[in-house]
Write a structure and sequence with these properties.
Length: 288
């Protein structure tokens, strides 16, 4: 019986090449799988998805040209491939920069150390978090518009320079005062680093996201734009509706309540907090 099975298998496997797989090969396969997965996620979440679709269509077109031996088209495609590659890098420079910055943010060893979550590791205190939350909902209740950027790993110096330099402790009273209508500092965004407000009236980059709801104006677009170019958490209070929204990682979550805002802030309160945990709260369908 066993001999029969052996003969049956050897009939099919004779002449086949079986590579000798070592543990290092398995590790290599796992690493490549993770890299390919991350690249696919990146492509899906950025404009690179459009690029990929464009490349696929171009590839299909070139294939047709090759099948029918359209030599001029094939020559042109061959000649322009280098130019197209450079053009793609130029067009997708912000996305590539963001992807590399994200890679730099990852701290492989921090999560292993259980004693790392100490106060030195803290970005801002509970008091600051409460100040921000209270200010947002108090401003929301009287429809005072506000734009608050909470810095994380990426320093926002270039955006601070577009505004007026401040150096004051975060509190709900100060934030409410800054965004009070018809006061010199109410326009633009406030940047918070740690427990301090570093500047006000800052100008943020506008998002060119086409899918964002048409009834959102430049304040929300600026919040989204800022979250696309850096890892900051951007809070918007709408002057029109009083709703509080949060932009992070190129996604806008609209109309969140105080508890949800507190959760979002507590996710970034510690430098080594796991960004994966973040997904459980806010990404549940407010994204427009
Ligand atoms: N690029 C920017 N950077 C920082 N702040 C900006 C930027 N663009 C607009 N703002 C702020 O947004 C205000 C205009 O908000 P606008 O009404 O256009 O936006 P909105 O998204 O509809 O918000 P709201 O719901 O509060 O009306 C400006 O007065 C300014 O304070």
């Amino acid at each position: 019986m066993l001999a029969g099975i052996r003969t049956f298998i050897s009939n099919y496997t004779n002449g086949m090449y079986f590579p000798h797989i070592q543990i290092i090969d398995i590790i290599e396969i796992l690493i490549i799988t993770v890299i390919v997965y991350e690249i696919m996620l990146w492509i899906k979440n950025t404009k690179a998805w459009m690029l990929l679709r464009g490349i696929l269509m171009l590839g299909a077109f070139i294939l047709v040209a090759w099948i029918f031996q359209m030599n001029t088209i094939l020559y042109l495609a061959k000649a322009s491939i280098n130019v197209l590659a450079v053009a793609a890098v130029v067009v997708f420079q912000p996305e590539l920069r963001r992807a590399l910055e994200k890679l730099g943010e990852k701290n492989l060893f921090s999560n292993i150390n259980p004693f790392d979550k100490n106060r030195e590791n803290e970005r801002f205190s509970d008091e600051t978090m409460e100040g921000i939350v209270r200010a947002c909902y108090e401003m929301g209740s009287v429809c005072t518009g506000a734009l608050i950027v909470v810095e994380q790993a990426i320093q926002l110096t270039e955006y601070e320079m577009t505004g007026i330099e401040l150096d004051c402790k975060v509190s709900s009273q100060v934030l409410i005062n800054i965004f009070e209508h018809n006061t010199p500092l109410h326009d633009g965004a406030v940047i918070i680093r740690g427990n301090r407000i570093t500047s006000a009236t800052c100008y943020l980059p506008l998002s060119d996201n086409m899918t964002i709801s048409k009834d959102l104006g430049t304040r929300h677009r600026a919040a989204l734009g800022m979250s696309e170019v850096c890892d900051a958490l951007v809070i918007v209070v709408s002057e029109e509706t009083g709703l509080v929204s949060v932009a992070s990682g190129g996604r806008l979550s609209r109309g969140i309540n105080a508890e949800e805002l507190r959760k979002e802030l507590s996710q970034i309160q510690y430098r080594n907090s796991d960004p994966k945990k973040k997904k459980f709260t806010i990404r549940k369908g407010w994204h427009r």
